[in-house]
Each structure stands twice: as C-alpha cells, then as structure tokens.
Fold each of these.
Amino acid sequence: MEKIRESLERLYNSFDFGRALQNDPIKFPKKFSYPLDIEISAILSSSFAYGNINCFCNFLEKLFGIMGSNPSDFILEFKPKNLIKKLTIKYRFSSVYDIVAYMFILKMMIRNSPSNSLEYYFNIAKFNGQFNRKYPETVSKITNFINIALKVDLTPIYGRDIKTKGLLHFLPHPAKGSPCKRINLFLRWMVRNRDVDFGIWKTIKPSELIIPLDVHIWRVSKRWGFTDRNSQNLKAAIEITEYLRQIEPEDPLKYDFVLCHSDINYLI
C-alpha cells in the first residue's frame, strides 16, 4: 500500500487542476458565489454528468442559459408549464417532462427545508433495519434524500402523480445496489473544501463521503487493486472508498478528481 500511496501523491502533486476543471461539470457551479446558487447549479450539473462530456456540457449550457444568473431564484419561482414550453431539449433517457419534474422536486424540497437547503435532507436519516446497519451512515442519508424526493406529487407536470423511468434515472436508490455516482459526486463538491470542491456544507465530514464510482474510477481501481469486485455497484464503491480511507483517513476522496481525469486523459 505504501507504493500506492507514493504513486497517488506524485500524481496529485503534479496534477493541473485548473486545466482539468475546464473539462468537468463542476465548471458550471464555479460560475456562482451565492451558496444556494452553487448548490442548485451543482446538483443539476452532477445529475446530468453521464454519457459524453461534450453532450452533457452542451445540454447544461442551454439549461443554465434558460435559468439565468440566479439559479436559486429560478428554481424557487419557475412554473412547470412555462418551463416545459421553454425547455425544448431532452437529455438521453429523460424527456423534457422528466427534466422539469426533477427540477420541480428540487424546488419543493428546498421550499420545505427549514434551512432553505438540500443539506437538510441528508441529515435526518432514519435507521430502520438491516440495510442501514450493513452500510456507512452516508448511505442512509442518501436513501433518506431519495425517499423524500420520490414523495413529491408530480401531478403539475404529468397530470397525475407518476414516477417515470426518465425521472428515476436522476434518483437512483442505494437499496437497489446503485453506487449513486452522481449523488456522491454532488456530495463531494458540497462537503470537501480542498482543490476544486466548494466545502459549503458543514454537517457531513469529508471522511464520511463515498467515491463517485464511474467507469474511469472503476478502471483505475481494478488496475491498482483498490477492489476485486466485478460489478460497478454500491458495494464496490464502498470497498474502493475504504481502501483509499486507509491512505487518507480524513479525506478518502482526495484523489477522486485526479484519478478520474488522469484516466480520461490517459495519464496513468
């Protein structure tokens, strides 16, 4: 493990964060300074961060163009029917209606949050049963966020309260074994206060985070021996995180951004 630690540190210390930032979805929330604008733009940017990077960045450019200079004001005030007319572009598995439904869920959750923030829903986890005891507390917090999101009545969007496949793609459930890559990416941005991350949430510690398991982290993890699992699931994400926690107990996701972009750019 000491050789892995040394390799990680060399990679980290020589890494060009500024250059990589321009090819990462975090560049969108980096445009804002007001905490709720950062939070809203961050959860939307991370939620669409799948598939070809040029495709999802182009989509996000159009979406934030519609939302304007204050994403938090937009999300709290938009009317679903009006946005459905304005948003003429879908993204991969999700229709215009699905995208508006997801934004409506965020709107209602923020409006109902005592702290005017999504952070609230990651800190009222209920521990009820074996599933929660088997996994880190962060899994329970993600579960709680997803469960509450799925309770929002979507009749204003679909005409009846349904949860379509295109909508559920934004809300993967840990109980089904999902590694919840995009939610964990969002949490990394909100919690860590180093490198490219914002660190505006204080009720979750960096040591509690789970790695956002995408194809790049998966390839590196298999190559470097962080896991021997054969599926990109929640158990693998936790196992990789536990390996990295042995190297950086207080900040196991320290190398996430570096490893991901190094694999993208064939640096390792």
Amino acid sequence: MNFSLPYKKISSLLELIKFSHTIFSFPFAIMSAFIAAGGMPTLRQLLLIAGALAMARSAAMSFNRIVDVDYDIKNPRTAYRVELQKKIGKKNVWIFTLVCTGLFILFAGLLSRLALYMSPLAILIIFGYSFTKRFTNLSHFVLGLALALSPVGAWIGIQGRFGITPFLLAFAVVLWTAGFDIIYACQDIEHDKKLDLYSLPKKIGLRWALVLSGILHFFMVLLLFIVPRYSDLGIIYLIGVCLAAVLLFYEHLLVKPKDLSKINTAFFYRKWHYKPGAYGGNAH
C-alpha cells in the first residue's frame, strides 16, 4: 500500500492532528519512567516510550478528526479541519491512523509483555473518547483518562508491573486535563447546544464550569505534592510543582465568564482561524 504523500499533504496531516502539541503529553510519562527506573532509563526505553506516546496520540487525534467531521464542519473554530482532510484525503487519514495504531502496539510490546497486553485497552479508551460528547457531560474526564494512560504505560514499560506512583500521577493527569478541557469547552457552548452535544460548561454554565476547573487544578497540585511520599523525589521536583501551580493560577486569572478571549493565551496556543481556500486554517 503506497503511503508516500507529497510534502504538502504530510504538512497538512501534521497540522490536522496538531503534532507539535505531542510534546505536552511527555512530562508525566517521562517523570514516571525516571521514577520507575530509579534514575536514568536506557536510551532504548526512552525512545520506545516517546515513540509509543507519539503514535498513540497521533492515532487518537486522526481518528477523532475522522469521526467528528460532521460536527467540525458546523463549528467555525474547527471547520478548517474538514478542509485539511479534503486536501489529505480521507483514505490517507485512515491509513495514517492504522499505521500509528500498529506502531503503538509494536513499541508497547518491545517495552514489556504487560505493556503489550494493556495496549488494546489503551486504544479502546483513546478512540472511545471521540464518541463521548454524544452522550455524556463527563467527556472531559474521559479525555483525562486517555492522557493519564501515559504515566502508567511508561511505568509498566520500565518495570513490567503496576505501582502506586504511576496511578497517583495518572490521577493528577485526569484532574489537570479535565480542568483545562472544561475551560476550552467554554468556547463551544452555543455550538454544543445547536448540535445537541454534551459538555459541563453547557450543563452548569460558564461561571460554575470555570469554578469547577479551578477546583480540579487545585486538587491536582495537592496530589502532586503527595507523590514524593511514594518515590524518591527531591527539591527540584517540588520547585517544578510550585511553578506548575503558579502557571495554573495565572491561567485561571486570564479566563473569566464574561471574557473568553484569552483562552488561547492561557494555554500558550496561537489562535487559528478558518479561511476557505487558504490551507484550511492559517496561523495568526
């Protein structure tokens, strides 16, 4: 099967799945890997973990773009995704999804037998998330669960067994992810109402959604301060947690119920606008 796409299609594909954002899924997994190894993991282990993370995220994002196409086209914020898919070709997006899925399972198997056995469950969760907005307001937590697999998977990849520390980190990831996804979903309340999609901002309103997000991030920080009780982490880790807490506090100061204009700034994202006929979405 020929998967040799022209450069422009590859570029469009990477933009479609926001591949540059893959790096944001690394910190908790790498931290978990270092703790599991009791120091520096081998280069082979680090490369396999990074590869598995990148492939899992890429597969999940491309699958999401495929199954959400009917919703994305009706949302001005996401309509550019459909234009990008047209340029790439739906068949090519499917091929990319399947290749990434296969590579994820391969990398997991090369890490440990337990990681291989757990990989189908991971695929089920990360693919299943794409359907949750159709029937539950808790989709934000399912997204958190999907990302929370990374520290658990990294730990299993190193030690070949479960432990308390990776699950503490995973719980922190669930709270962190759900908190910022709730904020991000505040932009789509009217869109969700129109298409009968589910979200907590739509259910409880902007003000209480932002309050809930703050509460989740508060408990996430508390949980990170508990982690050293179960692992050998020192002052550098605690400084990192304090820095994360400051950044989260700043994020919540920026976003207000009556002013969502700084959401992209809060997440350090550039704002993307849809312009028909011009690559699908241009960065500004």
Amino acid sequence: MSKRMKTITAAVMAVIFFVGILPVLISWFGGGDQDDPGIPVRVKLADGQIRAIPIEEYLVGVVAAEMPAQFEAEALKAQAVAARTYVLKRMESAAGSDFDVDTTVNTQAWNTNEEMRTKWGIINYWKYQRKIADAVKATRGKVVTYQGKMINAFFYSSCGRKKTELAGDVWSTDLDYLKNVPSGESDSLRFVKHQIFQCAEFYQLLGFTQIPEKFSDSDVILIERTKAGRVKTLAVRNKVFKGTELRSKLQLSSTDFEWETSGTEIEFVTYGKGHGVGMSQYGANDLALKGESYMEILGHYYQGTKLEKIY
C-alpha cells in the first residue's frame, strides 16, 4: 500500500472512530449517570433458551428489529413506548409461563447486537444502535394507559389505503382505544403485492380435499367487510372463511385484498402490510416527518389514552 493510501485510510478510520464509535463509547462508559436498565424480561431465544434481559436493554433490540432505523427519532420513540407497554402488559399475565416473550412477530421481534451489525454493517451499526438507544432512553419508563391500565399496544407495518382496524373486526373483542382512525401514511400504495396461486395449490392451502380443475366466477365470494373496508368474511365454494384466516393460510400481506380468477389461476392483490390494529409504523414515521411528536403519534393511534411514566 502506498504512503498516500495509508494516509487516506488512516484519515477515514479516524473519522469513523470520532464520529461513529467514540460518542457511543462515551455514552456507555463516560459517566456515572447511567440509568438503571430496569426489571428483567424473560426472553425465549431462537434456540429455545430463556434469557433474562433488563427491559430497557431489551427494548433497544425490539425497536431495532421492529422498525427501520432510518425512521425519524419521534417515530422510534413512539415504537419504544408501544413496545414497552406491550411487553409489560404481557408480563402481567405471564406469571405461570416460563417466558414473557419470544423473539418473533408472535410477540415482538428482537435483534441481538450481532444481528444488528449483520443487518446494518459495522459502520452503520454504531450510528443506528446509538440512535435507537437514545429513543429508548428518552422515553424511559413511559407506557400508554387507558383508564389507569396499560393498553394492548398493537402495532404493524402499514395500513395501506384503509383506516386502522377495530380490534373486534380482527380478533374477538373491541377495545375502546382502538378505533378506525386515518392511517397517517403519505403513500397509501407503499406496499402493494401481487400473488398468483394455481387452482390445486389454492384449494390445498385452504384445506379442501375435493379440488376442481379450474376456477369459476362464483368460487370466491365476498360476504362482509370490516368497518375500515377490509375483507372480514368470504365464501370459497360455499365454505366460509374469515379474512384473517384466509390471510394466514395464503400468507397474504394484509386483509385489504382483491382477487381475480382466470382459468386455473387466481391472483390476489394486497394493500398494506400487517393486521391493521393500532399503530401503523410507516404512518408513525410519516406523521413524524410532518412534525408530530411521539406523544401526538401515540395519541392518534391509541384514542383517549394517556402517557404515563411508571418508573
């Protein structure tokens, strides 16, 4: 390596260290004002082991896994509060279980530091890990409550072209703070996905044993929509399915879908990504870009709630 190249390399490494790495090291080791990381969360890891992780440390991994690190700081803060509320609410009812959460979307996704480095690269790791840790720290101990109790702080990726869903239209029970509200998203067609199924594949995935050779126009009929306009129930050859059930069996992105049959094929077009109940993550970021604070974002998606600091 030439002397000039060595000089350039040394200069680049110095910039990386002083701009990206040093501030993180200072924040980790530079003072005696470190916050207590809080109560331990029992996390079931991918290998089946259960690890107790202090909640504030755990939340950094959740926000890293659940929301793009490039999002606005106020959106990341809103995600941190929703995730904190979600896990503490689960812990209230998990006393008889071996663990509180796993690391998948069945509860809350979670990334280790190694997974963050792999996902972002070593340079961006220092930048984004610090950004997310700052968002978690800025909201330390804060949760969303309704009538004095922590809420079910549901969230998902994108509403798409519809309003948010009522909890009762997706699951079994309505909750007063989960209303049909505007998505907050500036691009309603951000997530549009086309999926084509062959006739045999489609009916097999839905559990049919008698499978026709091709589709007719009356094979798939809409029965009811949710109040937000997504598919609530539909009939497939006289068998009734919930929209959520069909979404699960076919691995569709959302229940806001349309379909068209043609001979031996059926094509589904889905809009948005996720169940649609509670906070849209892309909506949260779009609201943050418009200047809304994380408190305003949370108040938009969780109607009539309060933000409370419980530790």
Amino acid sequence: MGRRHVNGLKTAGLFGVLWVVVLLLGGLVGDGRWIWLFAGIGLLGTAYGYWNSDRIAIRAMRARPVSELEQPGMYRIVRELSVAARQPMPRLYVSPTMAPNAFATGRNPKNAAVCCTEGILRLLDERELRGVLGHELMHVYNRDILTSSVAAALAGIITSVAQLLMFFGGDRDRGGNPIAVLAMALLAPFAAMLIQLAISRTREYDADEDGARLTGDPLALASALAKLKRGTQRAPLPANRDLVDVSHLMIANPFRGGGMATMFATHPPMADRIRRLTAMADEQGGITRF
C-alpha cells in the first residue's frame, strides 16, 4: 500500500504541474481571456474520446467479439477475476494480429471491454494469461481511462494555447519579452507531453501491483512481461496513427523502441516492472521463479 500511496501522490503532483502550465500559458494569451474557450474545446474532445474509448480501441485493433465456445480459457479467467473483484463481467474481444498484446478499455466497469491479440493467446500459458488479464481489469477498476483522458485534455489545451501564443505572439500590450514567449510556446507542449507520459507510466505500475494482488500471483505477470518484451520486439505493430493513439492502453509497448524512443514511451521499462513484481512476490513469501 505504501508504493500505491506514493504513486497516487505522484499522479496528483503531475496533474498539478499540468494545471500550472495551463494557467501560465493562459495568462500570456489575451490577458487570460481565452483560456476557458480552449479548456472547453479540449474537454469536449476528451469527453467524446472517453465515452467512446472502447469502440475506438477495438476498431483500431480490428478486433471482434468472441464467444465462450471460442475462447473458454479467456472467459474462465476473466469471470473468476471479475467475481473476485465483485465487478461485472466485461465484453471479450480478440484481435487478429500476431503481435502479442492485450488491453482493457471502457468508461466504467459496466461498459468495459477486454481484448487479447491472437499473438498473446499463443505466446502465454494460462497462468501468465491470468496475470495479464488481472492487470488489464485493474485498469478499468481503477478508472485509469478517466485519468488518461483528463491528462490528454490538459495536454491538448496546452498545445492549443501554445499554438495560439506562437501565432499572436502573446499580449504585446503588456510589453512581454517575445523571446520568453516563444520559448514558452515551444517548451510547454513538450513538457505537457512528458508529464502525460509520466502519468501513463505511473498508472502502469499501479495496474501491475493491483493486478498481481487480484490474481495472488505476481510472478505470473512478471513471467508474462518477460515474454512480451521479447515478443513485441520480434513482432511489433505498425506505427500508424490509429494504433499510436491507443497504444497507451496496451500492457506492453507495441512498437519497436530503443534509444531516444524510451524517453517518449507510454510504458515504464519492462525490466523495472519485472523487478517490482519479483520484489512483491518475495515480500509475500513467493519462491517460484520463471
């Protein structure tokens, strides 16, 4: 619980920094008169994405609903975990891609969807798949879709205001420094993107820990992540716009990364996630290794 408390404070702190950047930029454009217009536009766009998050992600992955007859193991695991969490059963989908990955989405537990790719269903054994599905269900139960939507809204507002600032050059009547204004306009969207990514990585850590508690098997998820690290490098998804927009929902970064790309990743390093889960198992007295 201590680590979860720290992650919660970190997320709150990052949101606070985003709001500070929004207010600073808003004060530079028209003496702050237009900030609420951009805030409204950003929030409306994000509300649409949040409300339709399940449809957007499912469509991007070309996934189809599956019956219990088609995927009895997947149904059994999700039903057991949903009952254990005292939450409704989500809809289940399978994406035809061989890139191993999984995600859960939906605005609340009653409107949730869980999707696995054919690649991950072939790659993992049942114990590892249970660990992955526990992680994904906790994203829904923790309302992480709402968290990421709010972060996206704030980042979008910052980017829009920064573009306006570059176009109009800030409030000239106040005698502002044009170099400082330009620097703020260029750096603010970059900072907002980094903060948004940091929030996403923090929520991944929480879903790892909470999912491991739900399944009672941290090492199963650690083993799955080790396989996914290798599998996603062998069979990455194409980095087209639709997939990039939903990649933060997936349990593993679906694109081939490395070098500077690590800084802009929506997921924390796999090695660090595995290390945390292994430490969690040791704290619980786990002795099984993968």
